[in-house]
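Submission sheet (multi-component)
Chains listed below:
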Amino acid sequence: MAEDRPFVAGPFAHAGRSTPMIMAWVMIALTPATVFGLGLYGWPAIFLFATTLASAVLAEAACLKLAGKSMVTLQDGSAALSGWILALTLPPWAPWWIGAVGAALAIVVGKHVFGGLGQNLFNPAMVARVALLISFPLEMTRYVAPRPLLGGDAAGFKESMAITFGLGGHVDLDAVSSASLLGHAKTELARGVPLHEALSSGFDLSSLFFGTTTGSMGETSALLLIVGGVTLIALRVISWHIPLALILGIVVPGALFHAIDPDRYLSPLVHALAASTLFGAFFIATDLVTSPVTRAGQMIYGAGCGVLIFIIRTWGGYPEGMAFAVLLMNAGTPLIDRWVRPRIYGRDRKGRPLSVTPRESK
Amino acid sequence: MTARALAVFKDGLWTNNVTLSQKLALCPLLALTSTATNGLGMGLATTACLVMTNVAISLVRGVITPQVRIPAFILVIAGIVTLVDMLINAYGHELYKVLGLFIPLIVTNCVILGRAEAFASRNGPSLSACDALGIGLGFTMSLTGIGAIREILGSGTLFANASLMLGAPLAFLETTIIPDYKGFLLMILPPGGFLVLGFALAAKRVFDSRASRRAASVAAPASACH
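Outcome: structure written.
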């Protein structure tokens, strides 16, 4: 009878999860931080977010059509999610074409060049972010202080059209720009100002925790990102290994160097809460396609990302290094997966069969 | 003879285009295509070298024994490239400053030795010249094309500084495609070279497969009549 059945290799069980479901869960987990970010920066952020998402979906549709693939994968939400994640890492008042070009780079160069969903070596959103940062350094580093949508000094709808789309006038963004904590610390350190002086005004940990600070569109609120990330872990969409290893990878060297010289090195708590640490730990580095498959491999990968981020932040030319760190570790992922392979049942770690001492049968 | 020469020329220019089909000589392609002018200059310099080396090697092919052919070819090529290098330094100094090290490196360009080995050592001088012209112009075309794409996307201009580098008569080539363009730095940097090369390779494959499908659909009814 056995020969009637086709010969198939495992796995034989299906968790009952589909790509659209996982994408939807990630989007739901991202929603609190996104809504908060859009509210915090007002209409320009909403316009940029919408442009980026729409461009990502359009680019996906165009690629699928060009490659003659089925349009079914357009509805799984993976393109929209890439656009979503990219948008959250952008400066909230960036012009619309940053979002459009970025989304096109993410989907075309980051994903479809490699063969589409599941084939890409690098995290599409981070490919786009790095390409944008290198190509348009001015637009990608111009941050604004929070101006909540319902607050008094929010950008009005018409003014926002001018900021994002350049329609109906020109708004001088230099007048409203503001430095993010890491950027500020980097410039002040370069000027020789010790940290306790540089951070004495305007920067406190509670604003980092709740998110009422200058930063990228969806990366400011540590609290809401933790809520979303823990939800994903509870739903078992992601495992805790990468986020924990990544945060430890930043915090441990951070604490070490901070203990040596607190005036030159930021405190580990700032490292953990500031900029994209938590967003990256829960939503970027955990990308299922570009991270290792084994638990041990995920720990190595996460810790590698964390240490690289710390190194770039501390000694690199850029104040933040999440995108670079994730791309570098993405490149290492196939190597890690080769290196850290699970033991095959009945064999030792090196793949040799275990010696079996036959037992006497009774 | 002329039909054969034309076939050889067309083969070098398009069918076996050195970069887009044979995927050779990618080093100058990636390094020197940040503007169309650089690409054109490098392409023409390589073409000039290639025509001379192909003809020279074809002329002496009878006296070179197979055992020593590679050192002998390299010697001939190195001599001619040095000559071209000095000529460009003397008469096109601006171009020389941009292309710099890449002119002497034409010696090690695999296209030159490849054509000497594969074509000039087996064919007569006139046919070898046709081959060199086809291959060289095909190389120039892909270098200029990729340079043009990178330059337009990267800085919004086309053939910038052409008059300075290639001579005043070529000033008409200088155009600004996108006024007030802020620049897309990635395209000028090395990753832009890889990206545009990749898309150019894909585009040639699409073009060729469409052409062969069209040829097949034209040929099919004709053969059905027989």
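Remark: Chain A has a mean pLDDT of 85.
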